[in-house]
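Researcher: Let's run the pair from yesterday's discussion. Sequence first, then tokens, for each.
Model: Starting with the first of the pair.
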Amino acid sequence: MHRIDLNCDMGEGFGAYSMGDDTAVLDYVTSANIACGFHAGDPATMHKTVEAALAKGVAIGAHPGLPDLQGFGRRAMAISHAEAYDIVVYQVGALAGFARALGGKLSHVKPHGALYNSAARDYRLAEAIAQAVYDSGPELVLYGLAGSEMIRAAEKVGLRAAAEVFADRTYQDDGSLTPRSQPYAMIDDVEAAVLQVKRMVTEGRVQSVRGNDVAVRADTLCIHGDQPGALAFVKRIRAELEQTRVEVKAHGDARDQGAD
């Protein structure tokens, strides 16, 4: 039987601003990547989102980003590898603190936005992030783009790595995501997204924007909680996966620690 983790980026409001229907989406995902206050989120939102995830049995992950609230962490920023290490340790520690205070524990870490995309290409940056995660907790799972430098760096430092694929993003021939600044970067049609997901999970392949088949390893599937219609999107994808007899389960499930 094929298996996949469904993860969602959430807790990305702050102050008086909210984003996405996190509470409803938690009924359909198995892992929550919770913003840690740099690109989005604040202490109250972190507390609320961790509490909701624990109540619904969803694995808790830190979602560290660049210090760029106005740009939502999606603008490239020149930071040193030492700075990358420090901001990841800082944010992971903050989210882990809320998890521990509420009777849970941190399961995984998934970098956000420009930090994620830069680390997918830049091995030294990926290594700094992976080392930060390892030093924060060697039992943690690092989520990174399938086939990217982040997966290689995680495995080199001794972390479990979850190769991530996307339901709502298109791919290039090299397995990278189409930049959001380019046409056809996003998939808004649910039917097209479902077909892409089923192929990635059951065949290990995805069609690029040029029409070529690209091999992908699919350990975890990302659903963007801030996209319009995210709830309907995740409900449909989960139903289709279960109908196709794909087991939907958190990659960082404590029962699987030590398993490949």
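Model: Moving on to the second of the pair.
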Amino acid sequence: MSAVPLIEARGISKRFTLRGAGLFAPHAGTIHAVEDVSLAVHGGETFALVGESGSGKTTLARMLGLLHRPSAGSLYYDGRNVEGMNKRDIKALRRNVQMIFQDPQGSLDPRMTVAAIISEPLRIHRIGDRRSRAEMVRELMDAVGLSADLADRYPHEFSGGQRQRIGIARALALEPRLVIADEPVSALDVSVQSQVLNLMQDLKESRGLSYLFIAHDLAVVDHIADRVAVMYFGRIVEQATRDDLFARPSHPYTQALLRAAPTPGAGKRKPGLSLGGEVPNPLAPPTGCPFHPRCPRAADICRATLPPLEPVSGGDSHQAACHFKDEG
């Protein structure tokens, strides 16, 4: 693992202003989708972001993928502040950071053939000519396990797993260093998920990729991740290596996620989290720790004071944002 992170966020936040419905109510409120998040993804690793829907994972991923601009904080690539880059540098950076989206059907243009979809990034960045791009498409389709004979077909002619392979091939076309995968298997049948995950692992090794992998399924994270950050209500509440997080989760929210995860041989997946209550209203966030309305260990300090993300006793690599993080 290199000393300088491939990509690093330092205190980044993203806020969205909601507009009111009437002439005299132009401002309905501000949603803090991501708040003061710091993380680093190093070359050659898979860094996973985990949390419920609405926790801010996708918004954070879109900032790291340069699709959203942070409202606050700084983003660094190879140690360079993205804010200070010129247009040429930004274009080069976009080549090195590509995304795989959650819905393989919605992310592919139904009017384009597979060959046109995969070669589109090559055309945009003016790489090769028509003949060489056609050869690149064949090589990419082969790399993701699709026959090049299918290049002239349209997305609706493929299964969900095959469509996600097309999306992966498109993401690989520019030979990126970092691939941001936003719940890439959640829309697929369980029987297909493992095939796509194994493909992503093989591509990581053969092409020297790094992944920022977003998921809500901890079984998937356990299969693919090196390090894990757990998000709740726009903030990272725990961060650790995969093995450490699964062996000794510190934050009550992480513990609840792990209790809800399916166990081999234990029957069907348990419905929902083993938690009471609901995610707070983003227009009226709670004071103190945002998790305290649902936390079984909440005390007065939790309702009054936001806990910082700090090392858990036993090492700096494991951090949690909980006033009682060292109490087991």
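Researcher: Give me one sentence on the second I can quote.
Model: The chain has a mean pLDDT of 90.
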